[in-house]
């Protein structure tokens, strides 16, 4: 049956994952930035969301999804075999595209066998989307796992408007060129009507690759968008920096129980200054580098040793990949080294939380923190930086932000920008944040909050959808 509603989201994961619990299989919220961003959008727009639900039996999947379908949000699960998961997800997506697009080419495993699995699974996602998409549907495909879905859909005769949004960075030409399947992927992307990237940096890189690898493409810049023409199709390439649901975060942060919990955290940490890190376990997030910078800080400013603690939340992720396991070991080794070297019975320098914390606890941590240390080696955007600002009810927290996070383009003014590879620089930024007068911190945070409030996730979605709907919608907006 075809859908009467119009939006068909397609992403690797659905917003919920099937997991086995004490009472049998249950649906748990999925983690990660894409799901955090898309969940509020999906709740307001309704429609279909096509993605992988996790490993489970078909009858459990159907039974658990049924109540959601009645609410009008239909989740369309794509079943994958273990070997498909390995070749498509663990292999091509996370051992090739993820490290390469984050400029970490030495971590890539260019196993030629992964490509077939990637294209085969992309076809499966396309088939699932085609089953529910009506002719007037807007199909919105997300992220690096699914770059070939548009081409598959066109091959099946789907004429609907289609957009693609890349949540991770797009690399510079000399890095992208290393991808053995560079031309197939680049060409396939032009089956979409809109290609959305996070930042102007990504748009620049993408265009440089197109100019070199697809020289027949006719490119025309119109303000901040670029129109690409080939074989009678026009594709718009533009940056759409993703945001968060600011009001929801700000509202949540003001709740009595969150306020109480934030005070409790402060008390539990002995009233010391709290520096907070929140990351998925991933080598792009720069956690070991951050720990070394904190170690350098403690070694340099001896007088501040008992006055500050780092709380580092690390959410388990991609545990089937050996590199991620090694990273966990390295992180834990560094934490125990710092705590062993500097801690004493009344003070633990690094508090380590290795699990997904509840949303309320996360917001309480954001509120309790004096400084957020967000230092990815490279990041598409980084929502943690924005969430921290939204939760700063007292408006006095300091944000130390990597210049290689996409968020740095918008949050330059107000944050303390650092090079995450520069241990001394990050330690100095921590010291600057510690010493910064409250009035300056408040002024900076006010600016940050204004930016995050304005460029929120609904605005992002609206902007993207306007382009997805086509030239007519864009003209109407311009005229209004
Ligand atoms: C990709 C891109 C881009 C984290 N720990 C917990 C928890 N989280 C939530 C955060 C945040 C999300 O996970 C992480 O988002 P990021 O943006 O920081 O990072 P990625 O997962 O790598 O996301 C990224 C994003 O897509 C969106 O386009 O910004 O650059 O890599 O929302 O709050 N949530 C809960 N407990 C935790 O312990 N509840």
Describe what you observe in this structure.
This protein has 2 domains: 7-242 and 458-474, Glycogen Phosphorylase B (Rossmann fold, 3-Layer(aba) Sandwich); 246-454, Glycogen Phosphorylase B (Rossmann fold, 3-Layer(aba) Sandwich). The strands form 3 sheets. It has a 9-stranded mixed β-sheet, sandwiched between helices. A 6-stranded parallel β-sheet has the order 14-13-12-15-16-17, with helices on both faces. A two-stranded antiparallel ribbon has the order 2-3. It has 480 residues and is of the alpha/beta class. The chain has helices at residues 33-45, 58-70, 82-101, 114-132, 149-155, 173-176, 182-189, 200-213, 246-254, 256-268, 287-300, 322-342, 359-368, 383-391, 408-411, 423-435, 438-454, 457-469, 471-479; strands at 7-13, 16-21, 24-29, 47-52, 73-77, 138-142, 161-165, 194-197, 218-222, 225-230, 233-239, 273-280, 308-315, 350-353, 371-374, 398-402, 416-418. It binds GDP-alpha-D-glucose (GDG). Residues 31-34, 36-37, 167-168, 242, 278, 280, 313, 315, 356-357, 359, 362, 379-384, 387 line the site of GDP-alpha-D-glucose. GDP-alpha-D-glucose binds next to helix 1, strand 12, strand 13, helix 13 and helix 14.
